[in-house]
């Protein structure tokens, strides 16, 4: 339910969508979103810790329900990677895909925490502006996508050598004649720039929109008894539907990561 302390709906939505920032310089481009960084790191440690605990207690006999569930996730991710990436996937790509999937999934799942209750909790800690869903911050999603982008370049150079990678950059897809080099370069440059943009904005857009809808339902609950009733029903329905969005966006982000690495290694 929306807090009555806010003067207008815009104040309520603006407060919950504001990041806890720290200015690294006098310029707006040098601002650190502390909440996104801290939450992403904590969730990453938690994800790795949970997998480590399951692996530590794993047994070759009859597995526990938790072990069976984790093994099911491992098997699913490995099968998805094997269908796309045709190199040695077990040394890096499959573990990286599993890490990306679980990390993004856990960050997305923070959206299920009741935002007003969590806001009061953070306020009690002295954090009056704190977004606990890192993937609803475009800086987080772009940072993840940029990491994949650098890996894509690394895989391309590793597979083809620096000369082969540059040759492909200037001689594909329109041929190796010198007069088509500018067209090839421009075509490949657009492709390289568009990948991290689409990779990051897809995840950010879905998670940001989901957070806004939860806030709008909270505002509706502040209008009275009927608002509380309909907001509760619609909120429960949206939360159930949002489960699909949270899982699907983590899966899509992971699959695009694998696809980009496979494309970089195989080339045009």
Give a brief description:
This protein has 268 residues and is an all-alpha fold.
Features:
single chain, 268 residues, mainly alpha, two-stranded antiparallel sheet, 8 helices, 2 strands, globular
Largest sheet: 2 strands, antiparallel
| Overall 3D shape | globular
Strand content: under 5%
Structural class based on helices, strands and sheet pairing: mainly alpha
- Topology pattern, helix = H, strand = E: HEEHHHHHHH
The Rg value, from CA coordinates, equals 22 Å
Strand order of the largest sheet: 1-2
DSSP, total strands? 2
Uncertain ranges: none
Helical coverage, percent range: over 70%
Number of domain units: 1
**Nearest-integer average pLDDT:** 86
Q: List the total number of helices.
A: 8
Terminal Cα separation, in Å?
53 Å
